[in-house]
Design goal:
Blueprint lengths: L11 E5 L3 H11 L4 E5 L2 H9 L6 E5 L7 H11 L5 E5 L4 H9 L4 E4 L4 H31 L10 H13 L6 E5 L5 H10 L8 E5 L8 H6 L16 H4 L4 E5 L6 H13 L1 E2 L8 E2 L3 E6 L3 H6 L5 H7 L2 E5 L9 H15 L7 E2 L1 H9 L5 H16 L6 E2 L6 H7 L16 H20 L4 H8 L3 H11 L2
Parallel strand pairs: 1-2, 1-3, 3-4, 4-5, 6-11, 6-12, 7-8, 8-11, 13-14
Antiparallel strand pairs: 9-10
Length: 468
């Protein structure tokens, strides 16, 4: 409930009323609750608002000298679309009330009215408007949180992903996000959703891989009471829950064939039918899907519908694994370190030794960004009481310490003898190979490493070893 304290200014009421008796009634009823500004005509009200006059709520008489209230209402809404306006009429005419609401009035009240009646309507109008402002503020806050700029990374691939999100956010185009587990597919989906100011509905996420096969249809499309054994009440499915917003289907490649067919029909017809239901329900939902599967391969195996794939993949976004964008590891370390410092109430933000950063960049990260975050969290939790100013390799979880010395995981730690003539010849050949690759890639180390099919860290090590 909205309350006003002594320190708060009173909410401002603009009363557009030429009848002295009504003005006196409004002032008597509301003077202790609102700061009231009276104007006797629509023209004066419009001038007041155009010149920046303050109002949190307005009452508008229909019968005014000059421009009528009905004529003025659309102009008021153009100047101040967020201003809740209550129309007052001396005639109880349903068509006038309906027309007022269609033109943007918050409510309609007939003279003579009870003092409590108008007091209650104005109070509800203010509360409703306050809630709307809070919701818009929350949407803006969340939109900023999931803005593409918050997708951490300095690599060319991450720059391209941010550009793609900005391109596709505005509209209803279906998006298919691909990438390994832990690459941040849901984060990208949320960025697409919250970047669109017209998608004020919810972001609803469903993990298709986690749904029991016998409940997938019910979860997605809903069901009516009695539609199957155990359906004791109506259930609203994920599509309806996402009305006006976005439905995110994670691991869409796990859907069984008959559900794929139903999903295809929904995408084609823009409507669903609950299990056991008789009437189709029209939808205003954007679909974003994600998978860590190779859907083209699944199509060849007969596991995924080709027509559904092309419906889902109108706008594809691929997230490369972390091992292919090692230059993003350090920005991610800094990002998660700040978050973990805040979560754990640490006064000092720990630093990371260069040896530790190089080791973290050299790992293959099968779990991608999620795995990196988990490693950092484990380090913070294990050593928070000791409060190290600088994290080193020795602060890594034991399993990762073992990886450093594993030749399979990090060839950089494996020494090779170079005294023998054969090794000298091999080094000459390696020098030539790396030099040619660097020339071909215009000196760009990441592209050179890809061409040579080694990690950028390994390339740096070999170049240093060979004196390049």
């Amino acid at each position: 409930m909205m309350t006003v304290t002594k320190d708060d200014p009173l909410p401002k009421l603009l009363s557009i009323e030429d009848d002295e008796g009504v003005r006196e009634s409004i002032e008597l009823a509301l003077k202790n609750l609102y700061s009231i500004h009276f104007v006797p005509s629509a023209e004066e009200a419009l001038k007041y608002l155009q010149e920046g006059g303050q109002a949190d709520v307005a009452t508008l008489d229909i019968c005014l000298p000059g421009m009528s209230g009905i004529e003025a209402l659309p102009q008021i809404k153009r100047i101040r679309p967020e201003l809740p306006t209550i129309v007052i009429s001396a005639v109880s005419d349903a068509s006038t009330g309906v027309k007022s609401i269609k033109l943007g009035a918050y409510d309609y009240i007939v003279k003579p009215f009870m003092i409590d009646e108008i007091r209650q309507i104005i109070h509800h109008a203010l509360e409703s408007n306050l809630l709307k402002k809070k919701n818009l503020s929350l949407i803006r806050e969340v939109s900023e949180k999931f803005h593409p700029d918050y997708l951490i990374g300095i690599s060319a691939s991450m720059t391209e992903i941010r550009e793609k999100i900005s391109q596709v956010a505005y509209g209803m185009t279906s998006v298919l996000i691909t990438g390994e587990t832990g690459t941040g597919k849901e984060l990208v989906a949320k960025a697409v959703h919250y970047m669109n100011p017209h998608r004020l509905g919810p972001f609803t996420a469903v993990n298709c891989a986690a749904l029991p096969q016998d409940l997938v249809e019910s979860e997605l499309f809903g069901h009516e009471k009695g539609s199957f054994t155990g359906a004791s009440h109506r259930r609203i499915g994920a599509f309806e829950q996402a009305e006006g917003g976005t439905l995110f289907l994670d691991e869409v490649g796990e859907l069984v064939p008959h559900v794929q067919a139903k999903l295809l029909r929904v995408l084609e017809e823009k409507k669903i039918q609950r299990l056991g239901g008789c009437s189709p329900i029209r939808l205003d939902v954007r679909l974003i899907s994600a998978t860590n599967k190779d859907l083209k391969q699944a199509i060849e195996k007969g596991e995924f519908r080709r027509d559904l794939y092309y419906r889902l993949c109108t706008f594809p976004i691929h997230l490369p694994p972390l091992r292919e964008r090692q230059e993003d590891v350090f920005p991610l370390i800094e990002h998660w370190a700040r978050i973990l410092q805040k979560e754990m109430n640490l006064e000092i933000l720990p630093q990371f030794s260069s040896e530790l950063v190089e080791a973290l960049q050299a790992f293959t990260w099968h779990g991608n960004v999620r795995e990196l975050r988990n490693v950092l969290e484990a380090m913070f939790l294990t050593h928070r009481s000791r409060k190290p100013l600088v994290f080193t390799i020795n602060h890594l979880p034991k399993v990762y310490l073992n990886k450093i010395s594993s030749p399979k995981e990090s060839e950089i730690f494996k020494e090779s003898p170079d005294e023998e003539s054969l090794m000298g010849k091999l080094e000459d050949f390696e020098k030539k190979l790396i030099t040619e690759a660097l020339t071909q890639c215009q000196g760009k180390s990441i592209e050179t490493a890809k061409l040579l099919k080694i990690s950028p860290r390994m390339l740096k090590y070999r170049m240093k070893k060979l004196g390049l």
